[in-house]
Design brief:
Elements (H helix, E strand, L loop, with lengths): L4 H13 L8 E7 L16 E11 L2 E7 L4 H35 L12
Antiparallel strand pairs: 1-2, 2-3
Helix pairs in contact: 1-2
This protein binds zinc ion.
Length: 119
């Protein structure tokens, strides 16, 4: 027997409760230019400093970014993974709820079901 919608929703809620910190956006590596004009990073072709880790996110059309120290990269990865999982769980909860709503409307609101064509 498959689990009831309530059981599935409870499992989603339990995982949500244990998820921890969550951060949207992405983590990339990039080279940087410094402020000293005589530096190798300003030559042609440039030899950029780094690479450095950078966290980026789009918010209301604007890109927000910040440099992430190497020793914090693992934390950021975890937070980004949690955020992805958070949205998967929300989508799952919506699916479960929609299935319940469909079932109810099938029983109550729709007096007659659409006839299925037989082959
Ligand atoms: Zn430089």
């Amino acid at each position: 027997m498959s689990p009831s919608p309530q059981d599935r929703a409870a499992r989603v809620a339990a995982e949500l409760a244990g998820l921890g910190l969550a951060l949207p956006g992405s983590l990339t590596q990039r080279g940087m230019r410094c402020g000293w004009a005589g530096c190798r990073c300003h030559r042609d072709p440039p030899q950029l400093h780094g690479p450095y880790w950078q966290w980026t996110r789009k918010q209301a059309g604007k890109t927000i970014s910040r440099l992430v120290p190497d020793d914090q990269v693992d934390d950021y990865r975890q937070w980004l993974d949690n955020h992805r999982r958070l949205h998967e769980l929300i989508a799952e909860l919506e699916d479960i709820t929609l299935a319940v709503a469909d079932q109810r409307s099938g029983h109550q609101a729709r007096p007659r079901r659409t006839r299925q064509k037989t082959a």
